[in-house]
Amino acid sequence: MASVLEDPTLERCFKGHKDAVTCADFSPSHKQLATGSNDKNLMIWNLNPKARAFRFVGHKDIITAVHFSPSGDLVASASRDKTVRLWAPNIKGESTVFKAHTATVRSVSFSSDGQRLVTGSDDKSVKVWSVHRQKFIYSLNQHTNWVRCVRFSPDGRLVASCGDDRTVRLWDTSTHQCINTFSDYGGPATFVDFNASGTCIASSGADNTLKIWDIRTNKLIQHYQVHSAAINGFSFHPSGNYLISGSSDSTVKILDLLEGRLIYTLHGHKGPVLAVAFSRDGHLFASGGADSQVLMWKTNFDLLNYREVLSSHSKRVTPDPPPHLTDIYPRSPHRHHTQNGTVEINPAVTDIQSADPHVVEVGEAPFSMTGVSGRAGGVPGYRDRPGTSRASASTYTHAYEEQEEDEEEESPGLGVTYLLDERSGLPPAFRSTLEHIVQQLDILTQTVAVLEERLTLTEDKLKECLDNQAVILQTLHTDELHEERGAEGPAV
């Protein structure tokens, strides 16, 4: 559980793109932010204020999507040049190219194990790739128009896709079949994603709506219409309690999914907001827009209250019926409109005084995935490219070493543990103990759920046995009556 304590605040404004910012994603280590743009460049912003930013040059057209691998040692980018590139997000800037689509690639996403990529394209297809073998595996072909967005479920068993045919589709990755289609849209479906537990998907549309579906029951459970223009993207908070959305109405909206209402409207971009993304720990979120700016915000509204967490877990292990999704989300899919009680935030973006980072431009440098392991740092080293002198190579190497030194000098205050301790106001030892208790309560809750399920099965079996016994007794009683009548003989 979380409590709303403070409003989100603007932390930094990154300036380096020369055209609209179309996509954004934070690294799993919380140290980098990747953004793509209409200027054809991929930018890697190091969140340490002293560190450099990297501009990767290689795509021949607009970059439409970016996504960090789960280990953080690769960044995938999709482009209108019909390719997907995998980059090493460091000064060496090595990349490899995936080609199989015949039109603009709109979306790219890693599976949770980092072994596969899924892509969606204007050629109406969804494709799945092997990352380490650098090979196309299979296509999913039932969309009848451009595919705008694709995502793996957290367990990798499903793929969600949406597009200009006004549908959202769910695919089984083992059978390669479409197992469900949601088509309640008045225009193109622009974005889709799973929540952290994988039980729900959210999808947005050019009709200004955002919908959340329970994929276990295939029911619409929430329907928001809080923007006044098309929604271009959204992002779930890791807790699943909040969602941010960016729209062509130039605003970022923050929704409280537990209460089913809009809580914040953020004004900062001068033009459509094209991309939003939460960091993996939920402490930060970024937004990118047509004004070429990347704004990084501090969450603040999701400060953890351990007393509420422990209280909720205590309730979960009582003999009361286990909680269901309908106990958390609104029971009916009523529409949520803008409310007068929402907080409007208008940061003075132009007054941000943080110095712009020094940008290092990195050209194309091919690499082979054979040296990439599943851990960070497995990307092969720098390779001399044709036309690259030894002097320039040593310059890159020297810059990279300085970058590493900058990262080593990074203040402990940027660490995740420190941030959590600061936010919760608890000593590290006490916080660790509470986390351990919460984990044990989770295990206990799962155990109770399993026992309840087994008890229900046992009751069903027992009832079935009793019913069978009653039938048998009735049959025996009938047979005895027949035998008695036969022994008495025919009436005289």
From TrEMBL:
Keywords for the protein's UniProt record, in alphabetical order: Coiled coil, Cytoplasm, Cytoskeleton, Repeat, WD repeat
Any coiled-coil regions, as ranges: 434-468
Keyword Cell wall biogenesis/degradation: no
Main subcellular location: cytoplasm
WD repeats: 14-48, 56-87, 98-139, 140-181, 182-223, 224-265, 266-298
GO process annotations (BP): cilium assembly; microtubule-based process; multicellular organismal-level homeostasis
Keyword match Repeat: yes
Pfam families according to UniProt: WD40 (PF00400)
Gene Ontology cellular component terms for the protein in this record: centriole; ciliary basal body
Family statement: Belongs to the WD repeat POC1 family.
Annotated protein name in UniProt: POC1 centriolar protein homolog B
Record gene name: POC1B
